[in-house]
Amino acid sequence: MTAPLHDTHAAGPGRALPDTQQGMRRRNLARVLHAVSAEGPLSRAAVASRIGLTRAAVSSLVDELIRSGLLEELGPERPGRVGRPGSALAVSGHGPAGIGAEIGVDHLAVCAVDLRGQVRARAERHVANRGRAPGPVIGELTELVHRVVAEAQGEGLWPAGLAVAVPGLVARDARTVVRAPNLDWHDIDLGALLPSAYPLTVDNEANFGALAELWLGDATPHDFLHVSAEIGIGAALVVAGGLLRGTRGFAGELGHVPVQPEGPLCPCGGRGCLEQYAGEEAVLRAAGLAPGEDRVGLLAGRAADGDEAVRRALREAGAALGVALTGAVNLLDPESVVLGGALSGLAPWLLPALEAELDRRTAGPACPVSVSRLGPEGPLLGAAHSVVRAVLDDPAAVAERA
Amino acid sequence: MTAPLHDTHAAGPGRALPDTQQGMRRRNLARVLHAVSAEGPLSRAAVASRIGLTRAAVSSLVDELIRSGLLEELGPERPGRVGRPGSALAVSGHGPAGIGAEIGVDHLAVCAVDLRGQVRARAERHVANRGRAPGPVIGELTELVHRVVAEAQGEGLWPAGLAVAVPGLVARDARTVVRAPNLDWHDIDLGALLPSAYPLTVDNEANFGALAELWLGDATPHDFLHVSAEIGIGAALVVAGGLLRGTRGFAGELGHVPVQPEGPLCPCGGRGCLEQYAGEEAVLRAAGLAPGEDRVGLLAGRAADGDEAVRRALREAGAALGVALTGAVNLLDPESVVLGGALSGLAPWLLPALEAELDRRTAGPACPVSVSRLGPEGPLLGAAHSVVRAVLDDPAAVAERA
């Protein structure tokens, strides 16, 4: 499974499946599973009325989904209704699980999410990955994956796929890290290093963060620009509920938008890139602090304590973000901008200057900016949920592997 | 017909039509017409083999398209082939025509394009429209439309629709000009001012220019950023062969991307917007020339004559375009950038500085930049062709009106 799983969601349940009798059954399996996932517990009759199929057709589809371990029966519905009591159906809490993983500049994290969207196992390790060779990093990540999979299996779940978020550009093959400057990785085929037991998808952390926001956020629109940051600053563009990936898969490099054409040289080769003003290390430098672990925690703590140098540095970072986002909003006309990832923890000090720049530079009503509720967990959750979404979108494919 | 006609093309011939017996016939009419349009003249048998329908089915569809005046028979094919000679089919040169119109800051233009893509009538008037009320401008444009339609009718064509390119932001209703700063128009419903005899589509000139490039350009990719300019600088993003319009239809405002955050104030409310460095009037100012008509001709003439002040002004404009495009390329990862509209006439002097900025600011291979062969005719041709494309995409809808 080399295609990015989560993109299929943009087309709706099972839309990409072939237009044959068998394809139609696969699409209908997806419609049943999506209906129960979105509104369950539901009886067979309620599913039939929601998706417009006969009760008999739905029963046959439900039976197949129960056999595959994707749906389960909760027992008879409460009495007091007209007719013979039906059994309520729910998405299985013991079937396939999405395994999400995140490679950060100074941490590794893995989690398992069940079909109900619950995180059932999680492991994390703080480790300085910058400049480390990919082999040992992926070795440690694989240990965490095995630990999380074992824990999930102990609860009756089985891994339906592994999705890995990386702080860098990923090729459209969804496994090759083309460039991750803050790890110092170039052209690394993660598919060759990760366990081959599960279908694999590798994607940029900003993309997974945006998908998490789309799927799990509160009333997130279907057209938005998601900005996230660790040391680098990435963005992801969601258009009509799908990711805009660009020709090579490199869209969203907000961190290298020039905000001061003759500003400081950036490792990317440019000058005055946003990252030179609003990246975590640039902010630490401007505040006179040494880089280390938990940079966001340090900055947030000092800012909350009223440290004026830190607050000024964050204001300047917010203003630089506002300039870069003015350009992005002029080009893309999104419905909103969402600040996610590590940035969300600094929002109280970044937002006022960011919004002031956006307001004064925008004719008409400025684009609204909100802060992600998911915060730094976004990319990891987006990765795990992308696997879950793929199961909901084509349950038959999973049943074949079960 | 308020929906933007041309967007339907992104989905392919007739894809948006309903999934019924009648819908299937409408889709098949479109497939026949597209096949003849793309590869004709073709016999019925050749059409059948190209689109995978039986000869009998194709004959019935062809008969309907001939009755509607969309196809015509050229007479028996040349002998020497096996079997009974068939009659070659061609797209009609006497059926519906697309009427394109352009409202420029100092010109009005209208043309009629037949189903074969040939311009069959054209009228243009040089007139200073800046600050003029919409009523008189549209009155003059309507005169030109009537003149072009009469000329087309004299050749046996009839107008299938009118598409109007404007230098401003157009609402998603495809008839309201929300803001055209260089005309000083705000919230003008062109639908109420233009003749109601034809289905109407109003769109931004950069969007029509990009569609012309997509449909008529030499080997244009399906993902590109099209930059065009008159006094304003607009861009249009083509993604997977369709326009990215933005939430309100305002995407592509490259002219208001900040290139010097503390640069000169722009009428949009921003500071240091690209238009302040690379708009035609900014370039004239930097070159010490007075604004007037035919600004591009003046600049190109002086530059060709070796006027160093003009060449320097164009180099600086090219560099500013390079900075703004670096940001756009980082955000969107297009396959290429195409310079169109009036800008294309200045490309020899803009391009070197533009490409130098893009190269030095981009890690890895820079995004290729090309110059549109259509030049300033792009928006007008794109408008007329959008009507022709709508006919090819759903011939049954036109036949109903014929």
Automatic annotation (TrEMBL), chains A, B:
<dbReference type="InterPro" id="IPR000835">
    <property type="entry name" value="HTH_MarR-typ"/>
</dbReference>
<feature type="domain" description="HTH marR-type">
    <location>
        <begin position="30"/>
        <end position="81"/>
    </location>
</feature>
<comment type="similarity">
    <text>Belongs to the ROK (NagC/XylR) family.</text>
</comment>
<dbReference type="InterPro" id="IPR000600">
    <property type="entry name" value="ROK"/>
</dbReference>
<dbReference type="InterPro" id="IPR043129">
    <property type="entry name" value="ATPase_NBD"/>
</dbReference>
<dbReference type="GO" id="GO:0003700">
    <property type="term" value="F:DNA-binding transcription factor activity"/>
</dbReference>
<dbReference type="Pfam" id="PF00480">
    <property type="entry name" value="ROK"/>
</dbReference>
<dbReference type="Pfam" id="PF12802">
    <property type="entry name" value="MarR_2"/>
</dbReference>
<feature type="region of interest" description="Disordered">
    <location>
        <begin position="1"/>
        <end position="23"/>
    </location>
</feature>
<dbReference type="InterPro" id="IPR036390">
    <property type="entry name" value="WH_DNA-bd_sf"/>
</dbReference>
<protein>
    <submittedName>
        <fullName>ROK family transcriptional regulator</fullName>
    </submittedName>
</protein>
<dbReference type="InterPro" id="IPR036388">
    <property type="entry name" value="WH-like_DNA-bd_sf"/>
</dbReference>
